[in-house]
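User: Okay, second chain of the day. Same drill as before: sequence in, structure tokens out.
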Amino acid sequence: MSSAWRQPTSSPNSVPLTRRGALCLVAALAVLPGRALAADDPKVVAYDVLSSMVLGRRDAFLKATLPTDGVDVLLPSSLSADERRQVEERLTRVRFSSQLPPLFEGEPVDDTAGAPVGTRIVYVTQYGGSLVPVPVVRTRDGWRVDPRYWVAERQQAATPPPDDAPVMLVKRFLYHVMNRETEPLKALSYLPDHVEQLTRNNNLPGADRGHVAMLAVEMGLAPARAGEVVRMPSGTRITAGSSADELVFVGMMGTIEVPFRLRRVNGAWKVVPEPYFEFLRSMGAI
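Assistant: Same drill. Structure tokens below.
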């Protein structure tokens, strides 16, 4: 396992990047303050959000992000003059790259300028010595950053949800998949008789399995937005919020967005199994 994996937190000073070299970096651009670029360039929007977040500029942050409850946990209450100078100096060195092309419902999009609404790009940049993923989404009003993973990481680290909360069921599910532990999976899976299929291709060495499993527990995991179309690792497309007996979550593991679905069985939530190990490996996350 490459040492490029970092322990994820919601802070822009320590957010993880997936394994270096797994996929080619397909786009890179230095975005500096004052540089004249199109207002709807997704990299410019990514820079605007990162800079407004670390500088505590709430109005600018909200203008360039998707509506998300709890974003104030990301913004500093105040900065001293010295702190502001340090932040501004760091921002001059910000560079954005992407490991994957823009994706629309899981399919590559060739033309960013003509990307359909719902297209997603996950950029990554280094800030303050740490690697920060910045997911950007095409909306009807232009490109916007989706801050839900940052908020979820910060909130879940500060106040861990109860063990029976759906978000914790999902994290434990992926933890056991990565650790190749089939018995605990049976209690969490919507299809308990098929859990052997979830781990049969997991050939990671023991130490690496444990490391990736812990990253699964620590990743930011947020509910999908109502009406959001999510492509599952198996290729199935589902619409979040279409059934009262189904929940959809999306997590950020490194720079890879990982979708999950839960269904209610006898009053309890169970995770619908998907080929998560194979998906994460194919995306260059492990």
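The chain has nine helices and 13 strands.

User: Thanks, on to the next one.
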